[in-house]
Amino acid sequence: MNIAVLGTGMVGRAIAGRLGQLGHTVTIGTRDPDATLARTDSDGMGNPSYPAWAAEHPAIRLATFSDAAADSELIVNATNGSASLDVLTLAGAEHLAGKVVVDIANPLDFSHGMPPTLFVKDTDSLGEQIQRTFPLSRVVKTLNTLNANLMVHPDGLPEATSVFVSGNDEDAKATVTAILAEFGHTDVIDLGDITSARGTEMLLPVWLRLMGALGTPTFNFKIVR
Amino acid sequence: MNIAVLGTGMVGRAIAGRLGQLGHTVTIGTRDPDATLARTDSDGMGNPSYPAWAAEHPAIRLATFSDAAADSELIVNATNGSASLDVLTLAGAEHLAGKVVVDIANPLDFSHGMPPTLFVKDTDSLGEQIQRTFPLSRVVKTLNTLNANLMVHPDGLPEATSVFVSGNDEDAKATVTAILAEFGHTDVIDLGDITSARGTEMLLPVWLRLMGALGTPTFNFKIVR
Fold it and tell me: Chain A residues with CB inside 8 Å of B157's CB?
């Protein structure tokens, strides 16, 4: 499948790299490809600069948000939650129309210090904001409840865990569930329409406390029933 | 241990019954014991009236909130979240002072229809409201993330799952963790101070969606790491 991954950070790289490894044609979208390719800085968390990462992933193309979305059948929003609506607008509503938009961002607000709060919650969600802003796209919220590496390599944990999908379009959720299965997820729970993204986005506060308590981001929720 | 359980609903009964079975001396607190003992109605969810339940649990005493709290070493808040501060005020700050107050309520707001929203969240929590209102008590938030029956019989699931404690007092959390172990919980995760109750209270929206998606309240989160 031709897939655009919007965002050059850890999450975007993890998703893009894994999709490429699985045989998909992947284009990473960024605001200004020349600027991204000129970066020499790491991100302060030990991750390489984008060009250093790209050199190890020669099959993955870099393009503007708009060009990446235009050429793809499915678009992954792997940007910061606070930038997501702007980035998707740059990608172009006409390039998102009719397509599956996989939203894995979280509406984290760091402006009041740590731990972050949520800039939308409880009566609305980022997933719903994206669906309302791009009504012709088919938004599926997923993978926002675990660490980037575990999103695409769930076998990094000692047993199978759970991930969730939320969205209004059943075919879109089936497409996304198939990709999640390619990643190795064996327990994908369909929570219902896009309003159920409120639930998974509101998992972030306990996820952040768990990371602190356990001293690692390498954990996930398993829904035992 | 002498324990007061405030609340005569399903959660209060589950906790009180199990504590009694484990050998604790339990008093259930209610607003008006005579009125509670005069009830003949079931709750519309197939649960017996309070007198019918009490007849099967003769060792468990019924008293006013105040009398129940006065005579106990540890108090469990098993009321509806919207009533919790009022009920604890009726119990009496002087009867809560110095004692462990186990808060298992959720700040659910049903006034806008289903699914309920949360009347406090993200930058504050019901657990914190209780701790601020009764600064001499030692509040521990726990057990608000699973069904009443599973709170006290976690072996009702096919494998061990996780529960959480949040609170400012380490000794109080140790006391509560010991009671959770008596119930059968083998993975009690200390999330930190009472502000971490924000995380577990914000789990409710996804819990409610999961109950809908799975068609049962008999499930729980296991933190796999």
Answer: 224-225
> pLDDT category, B78, cuts 50, 70, 90?
very high
Q: Do A206 and B224 touch (CB under 8 A)?
A: no
Tell me the chain B residues in contact with residue A189 when contact means C-beta distances shorter than 8 Å. 210, 213-214
CATH number of the domain bearing residue A205 = 3.40.50.720
pLDDT (tens digit per residue) in B93-129: 999 999 999 999 999 999 999 999 999 999 999 999 9
User: Cβ neighbours of residue B54 under 8 Å, at least 6 residues apart?
Assistant: B37, B60, B62
Looking at residue B42, its pLDDT comes to: 75
Q: Which residues of A are less than 8 Å from B203 in CB distance?
A: 202-203, 206
Question: Is residue A225 in a domain?
Answer: no
Structure tokens at B213: 């998606």
Percent composition of chain A: helix, strand, coil (DSSP 3-state, to 5): 40, 20, 35
> What is the mean pLDDT of the segment spanning A107-121?
95
Our count of domains for chain B comes to 1
B183-192 tens-digit pLDDT: 999 999 999 9
Of A164, A207, A223, the CB nearest to B219: A223
Query: Nearest residue on chain A to B211, judged by CA atoms?
Result: A191
pLDDT tens digits, one per residue of A78-92: 999 999 999 999 999
> How far is residue B38's CA from residue B41's CA, in Å, rounded to a whole number?
9
Contact yes or no for B39/B49 (Cβ under 8 A):
yes
* Residues 6 or more apart whose Cβ sits within 8 Å of residue A197: A103, A125, A126, A127, A128, A141, A166
- With CB atoms and an 8 Å threshold, state whether A210 touches B191: yes
Mark yes or no for CB contact B206/A216 under 8 Å: no
What does pTM read for this prediction?
0.97
Residue A10 lies in a domain: yes
Question: ipTM of this predicted complex?
Answer: 0.97
In this complex, do A224 and B118 lie within 8 Å of one another by their Cβ atoms?
no
Report the pLDDT value the prediction gives residue B56, as an integer from 0 to 100: 96
Is residue B219 domain-resident? no
Does residue B181 carry a pLDDT above 90? Answer: yes
CA dist., res. A96 & res. A130, Å (int): 11
Put simply, the answer to whether B213 touches A191 (Cβ < 8 Å) is yes
Which of B157, B199, B216 is nearest residue A209 as measured by Cβ atoms?
A: B199
> Quick check: is A166 in a domain?
yes
Between CA A30 and CA A46 the distance in angstroms is 21
Domain residue limits at A188 = 2-214
How many interchain CB pairs under 8 A, A with B?
Answer: 114
Query: A23 falls in which pLDDT band (50, 70, 90)?
Result: very high
